[in-house]
Amino acid sequence: MGDGPLKTPNKTVTCPDLTASASPVQTPNFHARMTHTALSTLVLLLLLAASFLHHHPTIAVTTKPTTTTRQPPSSSSSFMLGSGLRHLLSRQTLFQTHTQLHMQMQTHPPPTKQIAIIGAGAAGLAAARAFLRRLDDDINHNGDDDNPRIDFQVSVLEMRSSLGGIWDYDETGGRKHTKSRPMYQRLRTNLPKELMAFREFPWGDGNTDNDGGTREESYVSHRKVQRYLEDYAEEFGLKQCIRFGCTVEQLTVLNHDDDDDDNDVEAENHDNKSNHKNNNNNNVEWPRISLQWKQVNENNTILTQQQTFDTVCICNGHYSLPSIPALRGLSSFRGRILHAIQYDQPDEFTNQTVLCVGARASGMDIAREIASVARVVYLSDSTCRIRKEFGKVVCMPRTSWVDEEGGVHFSSGEDEEEEEVVYGIDVILFCSGYDYDFPFINEDSNLDLQFVLGERRVMPLYEQLWHARYPSLSFIGLPHSVVPFPLFEIQANAVRIASELHYSGQSGILPSLAERLEAAERDASSGGPESPGRVQDTHYLGSHQWEYCRKLAKLGRFYDQSLENYIATNKEMYDCSGRERKAMVPGGEDTYRQTRFTRDDDRKSYRILYSEMSSTQPV
């Protein structure tokens, strides 16, 4: 072959003709000079070839074999050297080898794992964002070919036709007695927006609407939160992963005998099946999981579908199944019995006597609203020891029972002689919270999971997040009395990293099975019927949420000073907001929601821009 240019996308390299015949020179030092020259040429060409391949690692060149007839040199040593040079540095050998490697890389693409997320509320969106992001190489790949980069294909199954979960308010009205979400007409957040936003998506001017508020306000309407979640999904391309109108009906943990590609069966043609079996068939701790769901299409046809996933994140929330205490004699009550999930606006309680059972955040807010139109509102809670009147709102001790004449008895202890009874109540409105509910988990799920109604406890879970036995199943968003969105974000990142490291064969972040089960048993025994009281409840965090977030971040190896500043600032703002809220008297003006905050993460603090609270002044 003659000299000629070899063109690449970036440069032109001229390759010398290594097959041309050379005329021998008859001198005494010919062989020595020839050997020295050949060795120098070999080293030079090897360096050039290595440099070329380094700068063009993906070039693929196809050449046809070339036949050249030549006479062997008179020296056997020079013949062997020339033969080695031709074999090592011919363009066909040089590029054909790399072409084969390149084709092998194309034939073995990075493994893809199927991820299912149940629910497209705030927790589900945080989980989708976590699995769609590309982690840094030091966590994801480490440059080790034995630990291939893992790609995730994410499917978010949402039963409704829109995202947002509980924040997706039904504006049509007229359905308050069949409501499935606790959102109501005039609800405003009881946490400032500067605190409750996702860390990587601070609340901006675009996340507002025209409901009469100003963009500077910190406590915002539910409509603004819904708009914020829609903007979050749009910003990170999450909507393309959401399958709307999908109601999950069955979750099944697969045995190894069932864990094959035949389980990836769907009613419709989707090109998102896993291309390989679970690589951990000998590891029962990370089984694949089958989901079956019904999907309502735009033409209202219903299809039953089934697919097998490598990881499933349950993000269905815990504000859909009302919890109503077993109140003795409740069946004797002659008025209406409602739960806060059915409440929408106060007009229907005009001139009525209403009993609100439960005086936490929602109970206080609803009682305040109803008092604007009702005759009187009794607000009953175990934290109230004696009767206290605040205008039209009367705080009462715990509601103990209802007598046969419909009288409601209140008591601060077990002595019935100290009870106070009230007759003439028109409505009992239970603001008593919600139970955890997973309607797709049952006796056919092949899963050890306990969630007894009334106990508000899900077990066995490791760090209130992973199923202790099967970490391929996680529950994001179970803790309550927390700042929800930032906590969801940290939980989701921890789940993503645990899955990433496990599937890539790297050192995992979770302890052994025995340690996880022991920790889950210890956590579950900290609450429930045997240890009554909200502070001892299994999933109650409150002031412990900050250390919980730090622990998860350290476990997931993404804790740093920036995150510490963020968590510390959240704590300071949370404590300030809580102090102001608790200073409000039942039935009084909602003054604390007029306070406006701004973050100062560098100082692990915040600034008050405006406040009407006498105990809090702008700084």
Description of the molecule:
Residues 1-20, 255-284 are annotated as: Disordered. Belongs to the FMO family. Residues 257-266 have a biased composition (Acidic residues). Keywords: FAD, Flavoprotein, Oxidoreductase. It holds the Pfam family FMO-like. By secondary structure, the protein is α/β, with parallel strands linked by helices. Among the domains are: 4-22 and 29-65 and 75-106, no CATH class; 111-163 and 241-322 and 435-511, FAD/NAD(P)-binding domain (3-Layer(bba) Sandwich); 324-432, FAD/NAD(P)-binding domain (3-Layer(bba) Sandwich), CATH 3.50.50.60. Helices cover 27% and strands 18% of the residues. It contains twelve helices and 25 strands. The chain has a six-stranded mixed sheet, covered by helices on one side. Helix 9 (484-503) runs parallel beside helix 11. The radius of gyration is 34 Å and the shape is globular.
Low-confidence stretches: 1-35, 52-107, 135-143, 208-213, 261-283, 532-536
| pLDDT averaged over residues | 79
Q: In the CATH hierarchy, what is the superfamily of the domain at 111-163 and 241-322 and 435-511?
A: FAD/NAD(P)-binding domain
* DSSP strand content: 15-25%
Please identify the structural class as seen in this structure. Answer: alpha/beta
The name of the CATH topology of the domain at 111-163 and 241-322 and 435-511 is FAD/NAD(P)-binding domain
Q: Rough shape? A: globular
Count, helices: 12
Radius of gyration: 34 Å
In the CATH hierarchy, the architecture of the domain at 111-163 and 241-322 and 435-511 is 3-Layer(bba) Sandwich
| Spatial strand sequence of the major β-sheet | 11-19-12-13-15-14
CATH class annotation of the domain at 111-163 and 241-322 and 435-511: Alpha Beta
What portion of residues is helical?
25-40%
The first-to-last residue Cα distance is: 81 Å
Give the tally of β-strands: 25
Quaternary: single chain
> What can be said about the biggest beta sheet?
6 strands, mixed
